[in-house]
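Hi all, a correction to my earlier message: I attached the wrong file for Epithelial splicing regulatory protein 2. Here's the right sequence:
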Amino acid sequence: SLVVLFGATAGAYGAKLGSDERELILLVWQVVDLQNKKVGTLHKSLVKADNLDLSDQCREVSGLTPEGLGKAEPLDRVLQQFSQLVSSDLKVLGRSSYTLCSDGQLLIRQVLHPETSKKNFLLSDCFYSFYDLRKEFHTCYPSSAAVKDQTIKTMAEYLGLGTDEAEEDFGVWQVKTMVAIIFSMLSEGCNHIFTEPETVKHKYETGPCLSSFFFLCSSKSETVDSETVIRARGLPWQSSDQDIARFFKGLNIAKGGVALCLNSQGRRNGEALVRFVNSEQRDLALERHKHHMGSRYIEVYKATGEEFLKIAGGTSNEVAQFLSKENQVIIRMRGLPFTATQEDVLGFLGPECPVTGGKEGLLFVKYPDGRPTGDAFVLFSCEEYAQNALKKHKEILGKRYIELFRSTAAEVQQVVLNRYMSTPLIPTLPTPIIPVIPPPYTIATGSVRDCVRLRGLPYTAGIDDILEFMGDATGDIKPHGVHMVLNQQGRPSGDAFIQMKSADKAFMVAQKCHKKMMKDRYVEVFQCSGEEMNFVLMGGTLNRSGLSPPPCKLPCLSPPAYAAFQTAAVIPAEAAALYQPQALLPSTRTPQASAAAPPTVTYYPAQAAQLYMNYTAYYPSPPVSPTTVGYIAAPPGAVAAAATAAHTPILPQPGALVRMQGLPYNTGMKEILSFFQGYQYAPDDYNGLIQLSDQARSVLQAPKEWVCL
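and the right structure:
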């Protein structure tokens, strides 16, 4: 028996049915006894949608109204009635089993399955197998129009069936005409037999795609038909292959056909490549462009088989063996201690979520040199065990919390292959980014008291708090004129310096804001000069006893003292202009003006000087972006010596650089400097000359133990 089924939504009709995510509002069906050529009762049922706003096309074609639909039953109740009425009709006809038959595939694949999936209730098994009347008709009548061009009306006209659509209600005419077409196909001239129904997969099959094993056994990889692949974009970062399969519910995805795309850090980037069993399924998937997954709309585009193979096609023997177990749920663990063993992971998961095969169900991801990456994949035999494992998300193993996510076979292949094929982090020495600052943003020097010092700031105070504290006076702050003083650990010291536009403005601020409250503390405000500010920023102290110079091993920090040192490398203004400006500490003394001003350079002291500097973060006045201090300005003597020196660029000797891996993503320069606190620079000469671009034609010297990032 067949159950001829017809339906309509509140939106598009015909070839665009289901493409707009509108809900089902009408179901019409009738049972057909193929052997005896009898029919059951024709049933028509309205469906109450959550959104009763009907499109103009729907109103015109169906004649339905929101008022009429408001009295109908919801979809789940209608489907229950459908099953009961079909069973009753089958008993009357003396039949026991049936298969659905619809006009095309849209009603089943693009409407019923997606909508019931979103509303979280299951369809009965009868909706996973059906006959496409258009395909059956074309098989019976090969000279008829192509399947994609067929409609109920064109099939009836081809057979010469005289039915008037206007005489029947919407839906009723369609079902009666489909039944007449089926009886014509069963006539003695055709004797058509319905033998191969369309199928809808009950669930997505995980596991490696075919190309993985083909890749292992052949010198050239299998090709994937580009007409079967799409790219989904805008996915939630935590979405799994099962979530994506649910988004495409009703369409048949190839086994292992969901490949989640990862970024360079191995994290999901919100895209996935999906491979369907044939081009017809792919074309239906493209109609779901901008359909929703939760509150997000998903973009769906065509992709190529080559793109899919790049993500999911490569593997290794280790991965192939790991994925050889069928129908397993894969969980990815991230953030494992580098010393974690298989026993540690099994103990972390516990007896409530046993791993398939014990240790054989674990796959640790490693770098090419064998070092662990902190990632691992785990196999579970059922959904229950996987859910128990996911409950341990962000629990502690050792001293680290562990992240757990659903994963896919394609992600396993992609992560492991990317790590296996990864190249050294710094294969060749990169061109350095040299922090320089143009003259307008240098810190003012001299004895003019155009600065103010804020002392006793709350340690939680930021730039916004200071600007609010100063009130109307913020308009008189120079660009890049707010300087937060940090201690050697990179933490706020409670002090800050403000550069004002004039000494009068600084005096007014000191008078107005002295001992004014900020949060729960009063702040002292003193007028000072640029020279006094520089002493403090360089590590000195400023108190009632006067200035105390910064503690260091140099006789002094003044420019004349540098003349006896070995010539340092300099960066002429032409080269410095190639780089993004950053803040720079100037000389602590104001050099005398000369007829020919030397080029603006950045200076790196030649002797091994341990400067106990307060690592100062320079914050500009809005809207300029913040900058940070890095180096000391070059004295005129070094500039003059470097101007006549001939530079021969060489690469640093082995061991002169260190590489840091595993840094937190929010690590800044202050944290790195604090990490290396206590290590002094090498006392010998420079050995790290790094050639810049051809345009710069300059070199940069760095002491042996400086950290290069």
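Sorry for the mix-up. Residues 40 and 88 are 9 Å apart (CA to CA).
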